[in-house]
UniProtKB/TrEMBL annotation:
Pfam families: Self-incomp_S1 (PF05938). Keywords: Secreted, Self-incompatibility, Signal. InterPro entries: Self-incomp_S1. GO terms for cellular component: extracellular region. The keyword Secreted applies. One of its GO terms (biological process) is rejection of self pollen. The keyword Metal-binding does not apply. Belongs to the plant self-incompatibility (S1) protein family. It is found in: Secreted. The lineage of its organism: Eukaryota, Viridiplantae, Streptophyta, Embryophyta, Tracheophyta. This is S-protein homolog.
Amino acid sequence: MIDPVTVHIKSGDDDLGDHTLKYNDNENWSFCENFWETTLFYAYFNCKNTKTVSFNVWDHDTGDFYGSGSARSHERKLVWLVRDDGFYVGQNLTSFPVPDGMTHLYDWSYHSY
């Protein structure tokens, strides 16, 4: 089981601040994607100051490829799952804690810069 994780989510316009998530917690937010489909949210993840990683958690292509719905429907959903072995993305979290139907996209050692 993973220790509590602090996540800080930001975009160019919005800063959602720090949130500490314990086992089985979740963080949700909603937004309207801009007309040019260039909306971008990124996140910093920190686990006990021993594991840190940052990467884009939303952009149009990630939403299209891994999420549900479409840009026209305004009902898009993208789910991220944080585990000891990394970060999974998909449309739904139906089989917690086993990520069936989710894609292991990043490890804790990933560096986006």
